[in-house]
From TrEMBL:
Record key words, sorted: DNA-directed RNA polymerase, Nucleus, Transcription
Family as reported in the entry's similarity comment: Belongs to the archaeal Rpo3/eukaryotic RPB3 RNA polymerase subunit family.
Entry GO terms, CC: nuclear DNA-directed RNA polymerase complex; RNA polymerase I complex; RNA polymerase III complex
InterPro entries the record matches: DNA-dir_RNA_pol_30-40kDasu_CS (IPR001514), DNA-dir_RNA_pol_insert (IPR011262), DNA-dir_RNA_pol_RpoA/D/Rpb3 (IPR011263), RBP11-like (IPR036603), RNAPI/III_AC40 (IPR033901), RNApol_insert_sf (IPR036643), Rpo3/RPB3_RNA_Pol_subunit (IPR050518)
Location(s) in or outside the cell: Nucleus
A Gene Ontology biological process term: DNA-templated transcription
Lineage, highest ranks first: Eukaryota, Fungi, Fungi incertae sedis, Mucoromycota, Mucoromycotina
Protein name, UniProt field: DNA-directed RNA polymerases I and III subunit RPAC1
Chief location of this protein within or outside the cell: nucleus
Residues covered by the DNA-directed RNA polymerase RpoA/D/Rpb3-type domain: 54-247
GO molecular function: DNA binding; DNA-directed RNA polymerase activity; protein dimerization activity
């Protein structure tokens, strides 16, 4: 005796990912258990768009919960390097030390985290777990500027402090180790502060390894999201008039 055909709603649940808030029920002859071999056989990844700073891909053959798990892993579990310690020697700008330190921590750093160790709770900075950057800027009047000049870029010298002003200071054998690809900020034009004549900033920054679940500054992605790919089924033939109206 052959098994009877599954009800239409149950067959849909077996073969499709449904969007809803209902608890996933169990149905006869539908195995919802996780099977690693089936997962590897059904999983497909198709890259749709890839650039220097973003990637868009289709994840095929998995449940929405698995796609969401990948999203959460990318946000919180992938290690990166970020500025963790800021030692302020001088800061006469209008931005408080704590705010500057927070802004510096959010600057993405281009460095391979696999080349570094995590900082131990009772350990100190070494060339194996820390990158050191130096920031030193002082604003002055530009003697060559016109008296009626209003553009701060022309009227002053060093009126803006950018991420490109972070100077890497190699320690130990780091200079030789990273000679081909020196650590640096991902973007050079991130504004850290604005200065006016007489104001200056001098700081030493320690960059360490971490993950996004500890602090958002270690998250390697600005945005990680997913959506279900819709499947549109035309139930009835579309005439010429209806086709032009729907388009």
């Amino acid at each position: 005796m052959t098994d009877p055909k599954l009800p239409e709603n149950v067959e849909l649940l077996r073969t499709r990912v449904a969007s809803g808030s209902d608890y996933p029920h169990q149905y006869p002859r539908i195995d919802k258990g996780f099977n690693l071999e089936e997962f590897k056989k059904n999983l497909k990844v198709k890259i749709q768009r890839l650039s220097k700073h973003s990637v868009e891909f289709d994840l095929i053959g998995v449940d929405a919960s698995i796609a969401n798990a990948f999203r959460r892993i990318m946000i919180a579990e992938v290690p990166t390097m970020a500025i963790e310690k800021v030692y302020v020697m001088n800061n006469t700008s209008i931005i408080q030390d704590e705010v500057v330190a927070h802004r510096l921590g959010l600057i993405p750093i281009l460095a391979d985290p696999n080349e570094f160790d995590y900082m131990a709770e009772d350990g100190g900075p070494t060339d194996l777990n820390t990158l050191v950057f130096r920031l030193k800027k002082k604003c002055e009047f530009n003697p060559e500027a016109s008296p009626d000049e209003t553009d701060p870029h022309k009227k002053y010298i060093n009126s803006y402090v950018y991420s490109k002003d972070l100077i890497w200071e190699p320690k130990g054998n780091q200079e030789e180790k990273f000679a081909a690809n020196p650590p640096r900020p991902v973007h050079d034009d991130i504004v850290i502060a604005k200065l006016r004549p007489g104001q200056e900033m001098e700081m030493e920054l320690h960059c360490q390894k971490g993950v996004g679940r500890e602090h958002a500054k270690w998250s390697p992605v600005a945005t990680a999201s997913y959506r279900l790919l819709p499947e549109i089924t035309i139930l009835e033939p579309i005439t010429d008039g209806q086709g032009s109206q729907s388009s």
